Amino acid sequence: MDNIGNYLIALEQAKDAIESEIALLEDVELEQDSSFSPNDLIYLTCQHLLVVYDRLLQE
Q1: Distance (Å, rounded) from C-alpha 43 to C-alpha 9?
Q2: Domain limits at 37?
Q3: N or C: which terminus of the chain carries fewer CB neighbours within 10 A?
Q4: What is the pLDDT of residue 48?
Q5: Cα(15)–Cα(33) distance, integer angstroms
Q6: pLDDT > 90 in the chain, percent
Q7: pLDDT the model gives residue 28
């Protein structure tokens, strides 16, 4: 049952990370000549999710 609990925690953390990044995407006004794009935020979210899952696998 501990593994299921860990998976649920990881999924909740992933959901929170995605929601945070979506909020940033909605709030950030990007200039046309900006080198920082919404795709960069999506990439960073994916990287965060990989860290969460890696931590889960290490337990």
Answers
A1: 22
A2: 2-58
A3: N
A4: 81
A5: 31
A6: 0
A7: 64
Q: What is residue 24's DSSP assignment?
A: H
Query: How many domains, the chain?
Result: 1
The string of pLDDT tens digits covering residues 12-36 is 888 788 778 777 766 665 554 566 6
User: For residue 58, which amino acid is it?
Assistant: Q
Q: How far apart are alpha carbons 32 and 30 in whole angstroms?
A: 6
Beta strands in the chain (DSSP E): none
Residue type, 15: K
Measure CA of the first residue to CA of the last residue in the chain; give whole Å. 14
- What are the Cα distances from residue 1, in Å, to 5, 16, 25, 51? 6, 23, 36, 22
Six token digits for residue 55: 């931590």
